[in-house]
Specification:
The chain has 446 residues and is mostly helical. The chain is built from 19 helices and 6 strands. Helix 7 packs parallel to helix 11, helix 11 packs antiparallel against helix 12 and helix 15 packs across helix 16.
Amino acid sequence: MSWRKVFLVLRREYLYNFRRPSFLFTAFGVPLISLGAMVLIGYLANRSESDLDAFHRVGYVDRAGVLQAQGPNPYGYFPIADPQLSPPQPTESGEAGAYFDALERFAAQQLAAGELDAYFVLSDHYVYSGQVALYARRSVPQKLREQIKDFLRAQIARRVPSDVPLPPARLEKIEYVLRDAQSGAELSEAALIGRLMLPLLFVMLYVMATSTTAQFLMSGVVEEKENRLMEILATSLRPLELLWGKLLGLGALALTQVALWAAAGVLIALLNETAREFVSGARFAPADLGLLGVLFVSNFLLFAAVMLGIGAAVTAETESRQLAGVFTLVLVLPIIFTGTYINDPNGPLPTVLTFVPFTAAMSLLLRVTLGHLPAWQIGVSVGIQALTVVAVVALSAKVFRLGMLMYGKMLTPRALWQALRSGQRTLTSAGDARTAQRQRKGWGQR
């Protein structure tokens, strides 16, 4: 095998595909559009959850009797009162339930008439249950719920007896500090979100980089077979030289794609403080980064070898995409079960998918960044992937050699098996394998 010819094929595949508009859009346009959509959706969702323009008149019904008109009330909430109802006297405890029921009906009428924007009701047993019912004519933003909690907390804090050695102001608002369970380092909310989202983001980048370039590899082989360019290449290149040139060329393209995405992420993190906090939540040790590189290379070689074999075996683009869809579905299984990985990274399903070759890379990536894996599981999983890559690349090389000059019919598993048994090195039609077998048995000597 001539490595000079391999390099020529590598350079051609890299430059040709890098300049293709379809690849540029898939590799860079789709991530940018997706990122822009995520930012826009996040902005609109955050705005809707913090917009209180439609909630200026908010009242309350205090069935538990724990709120005081002279207590702290920074948000202007007011007790709902019906002029036609007389509050029950302290001696008339049996009438309190009927009075508050009527008051709630009056509040509902006010809300329906537009006199109220919202109202909340403290239940009779609020002191024991903490139950509060909130009513509104539209979706209630999260900020309103938080303000009601702050209002109730401040009101109750003012009722703390003076002999309690804790200032009421300490009870009005509770602040939480998030810390890493192992290092004890303080984490911001953005860092916590980053710790959960970064693994999924890395997996999505893995899938996009792998599937995009591998499918371009498959499409290129099918295209070269359809326009008979493969016949010209076969006269000057050995099948293995062509195969390795294509694999390494598209592999370099995938690495370029990932490097550009990583550079864009670093640039955003340098320019934006929130992005820096988001990235700071990642739990990547130097060994993890090395593992990520190994997983990417093995996963790409495995998936690309499969796509290359499919491209050599079929005769039309539609056939190749149907077969490739099956492997792509298997590849994204860890993304489909992301919730399972987040809830229990060492659960049965994540553990099993760690040892399945086509899902091992994604499963390891998610589990390493979300939890702690036993070293033996990492070693066994990487070993299984390495052996699978060697086996699949060897099989793909045989399929590529046999099917690169076939036209009209797909190289079926049966035809492939017959060709391998008969020692055929190249097929030009689906019937060559059967003919070779018959000749081997003496049927063609008549």
